[in-house]
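Incident log, support desk, overnight shift.

02:14 A customer reports that sequence design results differ from what the structure should imply. Their input is reproduced verbatim below. On-call engineer (initials T.W.) acknowledged and began investigating.
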């Protein structure tokens, strides 16, 4: 183990030397870790939840390699949250690691990882990497290559935030801290590793990650990191659009989207990502007597959070529809009580115009964009009760009904009305799903007969 390391007594996982704290800016020289000892309950939790990752680590270690649990799972175990998944970092090169596992597969070209499969679970096993040498023109910090192998110390310092860079050996119980992450975990602070501006310019998506972690874990963003987030936000337009889209969808699905979008806006990150939404929120001037309108977007996010917190998992199309709902509604009111083609076309056209720049810039898959459009154009039907030519049971059977209803539920929650209508549709949907094929056919025929009768009458 590295010299000069500190091994606090069992259970005393919070000790840390002052030198290390003051050393925060000199991590380019290979740092030595402060070593903490994880307490037994944490290790028991790791064994219970991360059984397969522990199998991978045990195999790697028995073959003479260094191997640890890393990243989000160590952070989450330490703060008593259930980890989403368990990632492993090792000194073994991808081919060496792959050879050790029957179900091991090397994936990725630029960024080679080994996936070890146990039934449905995949354990991502990454070789220690170091930050690449700046090969790009002077002053250009954006990292585009990230595939040079390194040591555990180098792997720790190329990570994004101190609390994400802890290594746990689940068998010895040692936690290796190269970056002061344990102390930040204790203080519930999110801090970039190294100089915040440099690290955020290298990869501006870290700005979105900072917001994601701080809202999800309820961690404070350290002041220097926050200042750098604001000054580097404009750089987000140079990041790969699919990565941004993925993070935005994660924020929306986090159950804390309201706080996340408020933070996005206040550190000037919304404008480079979604200029139209930024403009909309900046410039919407509520007319007298309808001042609630300006807050619709935030109400929708609040309702979305309540929905997620109650266990729902909205699809990408629902999330996209929610993001543009307010902008569309301002031009073509979504709550129409007619089934007329012209009204529906007006909504569809506005959705297209609103989504087009976003689809182009964020490379939103066409299928998500067109599904979002469909969900918005279908909203009016939920309040069409009693119209003669409307067959509610058949409506329940159309493709995308469930997503359209999810959107209606969130909209009802946001407006504080219409929840009873939503519940009526839940019952009807159940009823429709129990119809036999013959009953569906009969319902269809009845609809057609009515239409024919109406046409005749018009003639
Ligand atoms: P989650 O619980 O959302 O999975 P996580 O911390 O595990 O959180 P991942 O996106 O799964 O986040 O990434 C795993 C680890 O890889 C992170 O904890 C961090 O150490 C490192 N990492 C991920 N993205 C970056 C990045 N953009 N820059 C530097 N390090 C990163
Ligand atoms: Mg993870």
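02:41 Re-run completed on a clean worker. Output:
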């Amino acid at each position: 183990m590295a010299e000069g390391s500190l091994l606090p007594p069992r259970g005393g996982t919070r000790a840390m030397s002052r030198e290390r704290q003051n050393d925060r800016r000199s991590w380019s020289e290979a740092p030595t870790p402060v070593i903490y000892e994880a307490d037994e309950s944490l290790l028991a939790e790791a064994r219970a939840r991360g059984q397969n990752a522990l199998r991978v680590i045990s195999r790697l270690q028995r073959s003479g390699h260094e191997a640890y649990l890393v990243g989000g799972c160590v952070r989450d175990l330490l703060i008593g949250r259930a980890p989403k998944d368990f990632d492993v970092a090792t000194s073994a090169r991808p081919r060496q690691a792959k050879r050790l596992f029957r179900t091991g597969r090397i994936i990725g070209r630029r960024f080679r990882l080994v996936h070890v499969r146990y039934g449905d679970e995949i354990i991502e096993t990454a070789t220690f990497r170091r930050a690449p040498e700046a090969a790009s023109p002077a002053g250009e910090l954006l990292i585009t290559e990230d595939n040079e192998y390194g040591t555990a110390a180098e792997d720790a310092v190329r990570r994004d935030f101190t609390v994400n860079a802890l290594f746990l050996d689940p068998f010895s119980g040692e936690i290796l801290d190269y970056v002061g992450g344990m102390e930040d975990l204790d203080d519930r602070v999110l801090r970039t590793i190294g100089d915040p501006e440099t690290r955020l310019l290298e990869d501006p998506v870290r700005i979105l990650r900072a917001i994601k972690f701080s809202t999800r874990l309820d961690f404070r963003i350290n002041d220097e990191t926050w200042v750098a987030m604001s000054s580097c936000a404009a750089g987000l337009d140079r990041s790969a659009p699919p990565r941004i889209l993925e993070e935005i969808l994660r924020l929306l699905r986090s159950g804390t989207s309201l706080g996340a979008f408020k933070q996005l806006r206040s550190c000037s990150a919304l404008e480079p990502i979604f200029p139209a939404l930024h403009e909309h929120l900046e410039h919407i001037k509520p007319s007298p007597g309808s001042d609630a309108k300006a807050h619709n977007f935030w109400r929708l996010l609040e309702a979305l959070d309540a929905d997620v917190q109650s266990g729902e998992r909205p699809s990408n199309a629902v999330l996209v529809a929610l993001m543009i709902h307010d902008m569309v509604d301002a031009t073509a009111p979504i709550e129409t009580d007619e089934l007329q083609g012209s009204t529906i076309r007006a909504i569809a056209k506005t959705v297209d115009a609103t989504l087009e720049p976003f689809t182009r810039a964020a490379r939103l898959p066409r299928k998500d964009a067109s599904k979002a459009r469909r969900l918005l154009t279908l909203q009016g039907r939920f309040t069409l009760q009693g119209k003669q030519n409307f067959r509610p049971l058949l409506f329940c059977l159309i493709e995308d009904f469930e997503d359209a209803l999810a959107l209606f539920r969130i909209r009802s929650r946001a407006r504080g009305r219409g929840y009873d209508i939503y519940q009526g549709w839940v019952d009807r949907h159940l009823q429709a799903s129990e119809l036999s094929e013959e009953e569906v056919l009969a319902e269809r025929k009845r609809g057609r007969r009515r239409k024919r009768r109406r046409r005749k009458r018009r003639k």
